[in-house]
Amino acid sequence: MKKLILIGLLFALITSADAQREFKGGIMAGGVTSQISGDGLGGWDKFGFTAGAWVNAPLTDKMGLNVGLKYITKGSRTEQDTLTFNSFGFYLNYIDVPMLLSFDIQKKQSKFTVSVGPYIGILLKQEIRINGASYDVIPAFKKQDIGGQLGFAWWPTEKLFFEFDIASSILPTRPAPAVVNKNSYYEQGNYNQVLQLVLGLRFGGDTKSE
Fold first, then answer.
1. Each residue's pLDDT tens digit, 19-47
2. All structural domains of the chain
3. Which residues contact 42 (CB under 8 A, 6 or more apart)?
4. Cα(first)–Cα(last) distance of the chain, in Å?
């Protein structure tokens, strides 16, 4: 809880400081598909959602610093067996704080933004679901998820954008249940991997004409 309060205060401070300059920020929401590297399940079969807010502090006419605060579901699951109808999955809920450098690209009447940088995730809830029943995760996932994110946004208007993001843990989020090759990066533990497609709305700070 203390970490969430600190993250909220940091987000509010950045918003307040940015508002004194050229405020750019907004809200976003969308769908998520995820998997966990190293869990032995494989496939992008775990679907969920994300929603949150972001602010942008302009550094130059083309470059800025984006800080977000969003709720996001992660994890992995197997497809339901067509013979036994058994199902298994890891269900993880996080608050993520991405801190990204953004670069605007103007192409005729269209604007695109590329963003890249690290994120910090705080785990809110974790569980295993087997055939609809909930069980504790052993060994448990760590409270933090530290990783990197790459995003591509298209702005059909000055206020509206569609964004596709790729995110992956850099440090293991969970100890590996079994290690065969100690020198293998992916056998050091489990890593969250997420694909996100979101719709965003920007408030304030009209885009400068090119």
1. 445 668 899 999 999 999 876 666 788 99
2. 2-203 (2.40.160.20)
3. 35
4. 44
